[in-house]
């Protein structure tokens, strides 16, 4: 999954318009919450067969941090 596809996934999870999320966005500022965490974990598992540790996910600060799970799964 490349960055554009990943941003599309994040936008889908947050139910926002395409092109509104950037890799540098701070999760708290874009209303990323526990429901988004659960959805993110499920989507990475189903789309990429990648397991994400919820504790590691909770340490994420930016969208770029989330992208790290795509390339360097726990």
UniProtKB/TrEMBL annotation:
Protein name, per record: Acyl carrier protein
Provenance organism: Lysinibacter cavernae
Transmembrane segments: none
Pfam families referenced in this protein's UniProt entry, alphabetically: PP-binding
UniProt cross-references to InterPro entries, sorted A to Z: ACP-like_sf, PP-bd_ACP
Coiled-coil positions: none
Domain spans labelled Carrier: 1-74
């Amino acid at each position: 999954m490349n960055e554009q596809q990943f941003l599309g996934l994040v936008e889908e999870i947050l139910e926002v318009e395409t092109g509104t999320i950037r890799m540098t966005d701070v999760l708290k500022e874009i209303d990323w919450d526990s429901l988004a965490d659960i959805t993110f974990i499920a989507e990475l598992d189903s789309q990429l067969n990648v397991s994400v540790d919820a504790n590691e996910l909770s340490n994420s600060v930016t969208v770029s941090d989330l992208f790290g799970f795509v390339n360097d799964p726990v």
